[in-house]
Design goal:
With 219 residues, the protein is an alpha/beta fold. It is built from five helices and 14 strands.
Length: 219
């Protein structure tokens, strides 16, 4: 059977989120958006219509079937994802979302004073977990887990907690994996099944993920 996602709608989150501290500073992370954009291209290449909710990134696409929705904060990413979640056949959470945000965003630039500065943080919405609770029948969801230790156990816990069908583990302990690089090394964990892949270009990693999703939907 020919692999195709024609007629299918895919929602993808990609890139980092920036959580403002004051008008000039934010809490962010090293995500470049490369992994999420590569997954969007791989789905689009197989005929899908893609909604790509992207945090601040230099990545771009000229593919007409990928609609990029640029966002900055986790709250904005959640609001945008929520808009498309209902019509998505597949959701891929590739974004590195800040788990916490400053409780108060200062109106003016915070001035240097004293030797210590404490910024109080509050929990951000967990986009994957929240949308996982309202997953519609037949919808297939793929999360990512970026880990530094106890990788497989942490990823398996996220798979279950966020009601995902599949979680893509990448570890910062593997050279060339995770943030920024053009390459990644992934292990895909499903209920009762683990599939490990070699270090590859993110474009190829994206194809591996898309192929696996297709197999699970049609196998
Ligand atoms: O963008 P690149 O530079 O190419 O790097 C790719 C990547 C390393 C960012 C990507 O491969 C990756 O691992 N993305 C997930 C990073 C992450 O934040 O993982 P996590 O283990 O903290 O989160 C688990 C899952 O929940 C992820 O699918 C995440 O998108 C989602 N999540 C987490 C927190 C939150 N508030 N909302 C979420 O949706």
């Amino acid at each position: 059977m020919e692999r195709s996602f024609k007629g299918k709608t895919i929602l993808i989150t990609a890139g980092p989120t920036y959580e403002p501290i004051d008008p000039v500073r934010f809490i962010g992370n090293h995500s470049s958006g490369k992994m999420g954009f590569s997954i969007a291209e791989a789905f689009a290449a197989l005929g899908a219509e893609v909604y790509l909710v992207a945090g601040p990134t230099n990545q771009q696409t000229n593919t007409s079937t990928i609609k990029v929705i640029p966002v900055t904060t986790a709250d904005e990413m959640y609001a945008a994802a929520l808009q498309f979640a209902d019509k998505a056949d597949v959701i891929v959470y590739a974004a590195a979302v800040a788990d916490y945000k400053p409780k108060v965003v200062a109106d003016q630039k915070i001035k240097k004073a004293g030797n210590e500065l404490t910024i109080e943080l509050v929990k951000n919405v967990d986009i994957a977990a929240t949308l996982g609770k309202q997953k519609k029948p037949g919808q297939f969801s793929v999360g990512f887990a970026l880990e530094t230790n106890n990788e497989a156990a942490n990823a398996a816990e996220k798979l279950q907690k966020k009601n995902l069908d599949m979680i893509v583990l990448n570890s910062l302990r593997d050279e060339g994996a995770g943030f920024k690089h053009d390459t990644n090394k992934i292990t895909v964990i499903e209920k009762g099944k683990t599939t490990a892949f070699d270090l590859k270009q993110k474009t190829e990693v994206a194809q591996d993920i898309v192929n696996l999703v297709w197999e699970r939907l049609h196998g």
